[in-house]
Amino acid sequence: MTTPTASETSLTVSVLLFASYADAIGRDALSLELPIPATAGDVLRTVARLAGGQQLPPRPLLAVNERYASADQPLATGDVVAIIPPVAGG
Amino acid sequence: MRTRIVRRPLDPLSLISAVSSSERGGIALFAGVVRSRNSGREVAGLEYSAYEPMAERELADILATARERFGAAVEAEHRLGRLEIGEAAVVVAAAHAHRGPAFEACRWVIDELKRQLPIWKLERYVDGELSWVAPDEETAG
């Protein structure tokens, strides 16, 4: 038996924040390492624990790789998870 | 691929040209323009930002669905960056043989676009204050 390496037990995703959420956290992008298996909701819970993260609502819109996704969507290394404030185009 | 999320003034006539053909007798155009008052406050201007690649893809999907659903030719553009009062933030054009489906497609596209595109606006008030606009207190469109 070999000891599992980090890449076998965890995955790394990019997280994007926008508008009021970027202001709340004080940055618009970060990288997160999460234990496998991980979901979009796990990203949200991790970001909500950062300084300013308590300003995020409990269930904001999420996107994975530029598509709207539910919190239970499973993630793979390299995925881009966006936490999306209420949209206000038009 | 056509770029529809842009950082230049919008040109409604170019969108009309894009949907026009000799078969289409009705063209509907909607322009969403920055207005000067919102929630009782005097607005100096707006700054739009977006998750650009996702907004592009979502808009392309909305237009493809509208073409299929209404049998209409549809195009739309949304502007980003700093806009002044009276400038267009969004323009939608829809053309069909007859006016009914042209109006319906145009209305459907602007409604979907406002519901789905990951775009945000920062309002600048004349007193210098800034505020992210919530979707139910619109200043344009």
Structural features, described:
The complex is a heterodimer of chains A (90) and B (141). Chain A has 90 residues and is α+β, with helices and mostly antiparallel strands. Chain A contains three helices and five strands, in the order H-E-H-E-H-E-E-E. Chain A has a five-stranded mixed β-sheet with strand order 2-1-5-3-4. In chain A, strand 3 and strand 4 form a beta hairpin. The radius of gyration of chain A is 14 Å and the shape is globular. Chain A starts with 5 loop residues before the first helix and ends in a 6-residue tail after the last strand. The relative contact order of chain B is 0.27. In chain B, a hairpin with a 4-residue loop joins strand 8 and strand 9. Chain B contains three helices and nine strands, in the order βαβββαβββαββ. The longest helix of chain B is centred in the middle third of the chain and has 19 residues. Chains A and B meet through helix 2 of A and strand 4, helix 2, helix 3 and strand 8 of B.
Radius of gyration of chain B: 15 Å
The proportion of residues in beta strands of chain B is: 35-45%
Flag low-confidence runs of chain B. none
Percent helix among the residues of chain B?
Answer: 25-40%
Spell out the helices and strands of chain A N to C: HEHEHEEE
> Based on helices, strands and strand pairing, what is the structural class of chain A?
alpha+beta
The number of helical runs of chain A is 3
What is the string of SSEs of chain B from the N terminus onward?
EHEEEHEEEHEE
By DSSP, the count of extended strands of chain A is 5
How much of the sequence lies in strands of chain A comes to 25-35%
Mean pLDDT across residues of chain A: 94
Based on Cα principal axes, name the global outline of chain A. globular
